């Protein structure tokens, strides 16, 4: 990965209450960005949430493609 910046949001899932539930990171990956599995694993470890989702969306893929990583292999 180059020095690109990736957009992300963190959300609480499995709850209807704010600041409760499980934290989840959703990382938007531009179709031009190439991340290796090792890099995605490092990002997931950095967030250290139960799961980190990498969301790929481009014109040729509908619906978006999602990959899920945990902080440990």
Automatic annotation (TrEMBL):
Any one GO cellular component localisation term in the record: cytoplasm
Gene3D superfamilies assigned to the protein according to its UniProt record, in alphabetical order: Diaminopimelate Epimerase, Chain A, domain 1
InterPro entries: Phenazine_PhzF-like (IPR003719)
GO terms for MF: isomerase activity
Protein's recorded name: Uncharacterized protein
Annotated organism of origin: Penicillium steckii
Lineage: Eukaryota, Fungi, Dikarya, Ascomycota, Pezizomycotina
